[in-house]
Amino acid sequence: MSNPVFFPGGASVSLDDIAALAGISLPEDADGRRTFATVAPLETAGPGDLAYMDNPRYGDALAATAAGACLVSQRYADRVPAGTVALITREPYRVFAQVLARLYPAAVRPQALFSATGVSPGAVVHPDARLESGVAVDPGAVIGAGAEIGSGTLIGANAVIGTGVRIGRDCAIGAGAVLSHTLVGNRVIVHPGASIGQDGFGFAMSARGHLKVPQVGRVIIQDDVEIGANTTIDRGASRDTIIGEGTKIDNLVQIGHNVVIGRHCVIVAHVGISGSTTLGDFVVMGGQSGSVGHVHIGSGAQVAAGTGITTDIPPGAVWGGAPARPIKDWLREVAWLKRMVAGRHANRRQEGRQDGKDDGGAPV
């Protein structure tokens, strides 16, 4: 069986190019014309590879690397071997990402499976849909009446774009994704299997049964948002569900109706956000955390993985635990509980030794 390379090289960047991206100066003895076409981890990198390092756990790997050049912060620069060009920058990982985008542009967003532009055979586009030039539609995709799609956008295989949906320019809608009742900005990436704009979970509950409440709002996704595979975002009940610009949402996230997420938030896998919750800008929610409905998480707040949010969180706060509380309080409680358990075990062991002596040393 062959061993395919899904992101073959071809492009290259020079040390001068990398320095320009990072806004730094090269070491005096570095040849700015030297080029790199591949990247690699510190452990396996060779003289033709570019690597990066910004985590103290990899200090030994940095000291032993054979990489031709390494992006590194000033803190670890003295551990770069003599044969490796040290590219000292405050943000090594961010610059590394920029270099990767230059070397492997096809990895930046999903690519068309069939044709770079145009409607592929097997796709179904309603006559009333409007597609700008440069749109690519893969086989099996369905685009409904009145939908509008901007130039440079890809609609993946078997994706469904509902009636009246608007999608901006240079977007990528992954295979099998379903969008309805949704307005999408520019440069948005929706990964395969995501479902956006379906009914919110709204019922008038009573002892006589649960009456469905029609969900008549929309989902609004602003520019530069990325939405992970199999994530679901419900449309609003009577107002819109909104995802702010630059927000990044991981795989398998559930966002309920009427939720408003601010700009540049990070929502990690398995998060569940209940209806009518509001997040400010630059909020981070760790994996498997979740909120009840109608709470507010202030701008800049960070929520630890597994946290259960039952009340508002102030701006800039760091909370954890279930129910959620300030991280220092939670960690203090965890440490106290650990000490209590350890003390109880120690007491039991001591009691066991005493009982053993009373019984002539027989095990307890």
From TrEMBL:
Quaternary data = Homotrimer.
Name the segments for region: Disordered: 345-364
Q: Which PROSITE patterns match?
A: HEXAPEP_TRANSFERASES
Record protein name field:
UDP-3-O-acylglucosamine N-acyltransferase
Q: What does this protein do?
A: Catalyzes the N-acylation of UDP-3-O-acylglucosamine using 3-hydroxyacyl-ACP as the acyl donor. Is involved in the biosynthesis of lipid A, a phosphorylated glycolipid that anchors the lipopolysaccharide to the outer membrane of the cell.
Q: Does the keyword GTP-binding apply?
A: no
Which top-level enzyme class is recorded in the Swiss-Prot or TrEMBL entry?
A: transferase
Q: Which reaction does it catalyse?
A: a UDP-3-O-[(3R)-3-hydroxyacyl]-alpha-D-glucosamine + a (3R)-hydroxyacyl-[ACP] = a UDP-2-N,3-O-bis[(3R)-3-hydroxyacyl]-alpha-D-glucosamine + holo-[ACP] + H(+)
Source organism per UniProt:
Pseudochelatococcus lubricantis
Q: UDP-3-O-[3-hydroxymyristoyl] glucosamine N-acyltransferase non-repeat region domain spans which residues?
A: 38-101
Q: Name one Pfam family in it.
A: LpxD
Q: Which family does it belong to?
A: Belongs to the transferase hexapeptide repeat family. LpxD subfamily.
Q: What is its EC number?
A: 2.3.1.191
Q: Which InterPro entries did the record assign?
A: Hexapep, Hexapep_transf_CS, LpxD, Trimer_LpxA-like_sf, UDP_GlcNAc_AcTrfase_non-rep
- What CDD domains does the record tag this protein with? LbH_LpxD
Question: What are the alphabetically sorted keywords of the record?
Answer: Acyltransferase, Lipid A biosynthesis, Lipid biosynthesis, Lipid metabolism, Repeat, Transferase
- Residues annotated as catalytic: 257 (proton acceptor)
Molecular function GO terms recorded? UDP-3-O-[(3R)-3-hydroxyacyl]-glucosamine N-acyltransferase activity
Listed pathway(s): Bacterial outer membrane biogenesis; LPS lipid A biosynthesis
Stretches with biased composition (Basic and acidic residues): 348-364
